[in-house]
Amino acid sequence: MKDDLRGKHILLGVTGSIAAYKSVLILRRLVQAGAQVTVVMTSSAQQFITPLTFQVLSRRPVYTSLFDSSEEIRHLTLAEQVDMILIAPATANIIGKIAHGIADDLLTTLVTAGPAPMVMAPAMDGEMWNHPVLQRNLSILNGLGVQIIPPEEGPLASGKEATGRLASEEKILAVVFDRLGRKADLKGETVLVTAGPTQEPIDPVRYLTNRSSGKMGYALARAAQWRGARVILVSGPTHLPCPAGVERILVRTAEEMRDAVLGHWAATTLLIMAAAVADYRPRHPAGRKIKKDGSDFFLELEPTPDILAELRAQRGSRILVGFAAETEDLDRQARTKLERKGLDMIVANDVTQEGAGFDLDTNIVTLIDAHGETVALPRLSKAETAERILDRIIELKSRSKAGDHPLR
Ligand code: CTP
């Protein structure tokens, strides 16, 4: 059933790589699974393979130009209609263009003209793959929620052995089936996600904050929305764009975050506190800029409201999920927090580990729940980590429905 793509419309973007012939195999499988697939080719892709091959297999017109006479293209309605944009193979060129919003041909224009989630499977020379410019562009795309299926190691067109081969057909299809074949398993839920740091003012120009980027919380908001939930994202200051379809409330301080969460509490069925809320704030923020006078300066701090602790008393049947970013003794600290805050689950991460923590696109987390069970996830993109966190929450929810809830 999961491999059933009936009713789904996929835009398959093909770019100029020797691996372009593999997109024919991908297309065939997508069509076999019942998807409607519209192929868009860049001009360099046509140097490797003809549009006719795709046209025959997709039984649909293949688009290659912005100046195509079709209605769908002239009004870019195609971009609004598709459920997913899959670019396979994706060259370094297309990755760079999309990461920087350059829309100078049909494919790059369609990508920026609609809300559909995007999946890219890069293929290129090993040196190009490892180049810092490409890696930075991938990181931009990752931050925007684009799922990247990394290339594999093996013999390349250049004759060298390196990482750069298009991921296997099976891997690419698994991602498509996983994302589109997934049921709307959070339909009917209102998920409140908090994300990012808070800023606690010292005076009008200074504040106390932390290194949270908000990426993990935003990935969770995006994933929950994608699974059919109504999502309210209460966000501290970040530079991240609001995910499509998510209601975002921007806040600055812990107090404002508390008020925003409480203001939406009645509608909430699942709370995910991914925000790194400041624990202390200046007791007397100055109304004017503090001037130096050469002597030592002491700042008196007071605790901020502990949002989770406050909500615990009014939880009702809601699911509460917290985060614990630790630098030592992860398991014990996280378990203590889980109990102290009365959580159903805590997402623990050791931020000293390479590939985990603040401002990165990957994370390594352990999910500890109130049953005492632990699931250690490997290093994954934050988008994938978010999916796994939601999978686990759904599992716990169905157990709790069946009467198995240790907290209540
Ligand atoms: N949290 C909260 N309100 C606060 C501080 C934290 O709701 N004022 C939430 C965080 O969003 C997170 C969880 O509580 O989901 C754990 O946050 P953390 O700062 O790690 O825990 P603390 O209880 O503040 O413990 P400590 O900072 O001493 O480790």
Please, could you describe this protein's structure?
There is one protein chain. The mean pLDDT is 92. Helix content is 32%, strand content 23%. It has 408 residues and is an alpha/beta fold. The longest helix is centred in the last third of the chain and has 20 residues, at 382-401. The protein contains 14 helices and 21 strands. The chain has an eight-stranded mixed sheet with strand order 12-11-8-13-16-17-19-20, sandwiched between helices. The protein folds into two domains: 9-181, Rossmann fold (3-Layer(aba) Sandwich), CATH 3.40.50.1950; 190-401, CoaB-like (Rossmann fold), CATH 3.40.50.
- Highest CATH level, the class of the largest domain: Alpha Beta
- The domain count comes to 2
- The chain-level structural class is alpha/beta
Low-confidence parts = none
**Ligands and ions found:** cytidine-5'-triphosphate
Fold blueprint:
Elements: E1 9-14, H1 20-32, E2 36-41, H2 51-58, H3 71-74, H4 77-81, E3 84-90, H5 92-99, H6 106-111, E4 118-122, H7 126-130, H8 132-143, E5 147-148, E6 152-155, E7 161-165, H9 169-180, E8 190-195, E9 200-203, E10 206-208, H10 215-226, E11 230-235, E12 247-250, H11 254-263, E13 270-273, E14 280-282, E15 301-303, H12 307-312, E16 319-326, H13 330-340, E17 345-350, E18 362-363, E19 366-369, E20 374-376, E21 380-381, H14 382-401
Parallel strand pairs: 1-2, 1-3, 3-4, 4-5, 8-11, 8-13, 11-12, 13-16, 16-17
Antiparallel strand pairs: 6-7, 9-10, 14-15, 17-19, 18-21, 19-20
This protein binds cytidine-5'-triphosphate.
